[in-house]
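Supplementary Note 3. Input sequence used for the single-chain structure prediction.
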Amino acid sequence: MGFVLYNAPQSTCSQRVRFSLHAKGQAFEERKLDLFSGDQLKPDYLAINPNGVVPTLVHDGVPVTDSAVIMEYLEDILPDTAPMRPSAPHESARMRAMLRFIDEVPTPAIRVPSYNLAFLPHFQAMSAEEFQALCDSKPLRREFLMKMGRTGFPKADMDEALGRLDRGLDRMNQWLLEGGGPWVMGQTLTYADIAIMPVIVRMDDINLGDTWADKPMVAAWLDNIRKEPAFGATYYHGSLLTEKFPHLKAARVDQALHATAASA
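The predicted structure, written as discrete structure tokens, is reproduced below.
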């Protein structure tokens, strides 16, 4: 049966897994879910991922959920194909600590400006009852959506998210300096790079690229990962928010801050 990947083009977690599969040269069937239409909340999908989020990788009929878990799973079953986990136990542990930081600090933070800039108009078009029903249907995202509401995240939440993104960049820059680049752990591309990749790409896509103007190693890292063969296959047209939502090409985060200041 091989590999079937249930994912969404713009989903940052989906992008991690697509890159991992392409980097390992692994063929897979891609099934794109329309998250706005609620494909991820339909009974057939909830049967394989009760959390109602993407991605889910089904391998020979067995579902594997959560992008970080899927990346590790691929390394477990394909350890000799484009290895992306250090073989030395102490280095592998160091990489996992990086993954933990990435998943706890910058990864959730990027959702706040993403929702305010790109997804908010969709929720504003809903009635209060429709929005509440949507929130209640989200096993993992209910409180997140409730906090956002139909007016967007207020300035205080945006400031907090941008601060967490700054801390993520500082830590990434520290890793690059310690290892000497070009990758987060030195000379070899690892899952730490793949985990942080969608955050950096998303920041650049929504006009936050100037955040690392004083961090040339981060800018060089982004140039390098864009040159990887797996990158183009991962970020096919429609994977960037500016491709899905053309109005974002002219949008600035400070505009979103101004727009939500009244609700602070």
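The radius of gyration is 18 Å. The chain has 14 helices and four strands.
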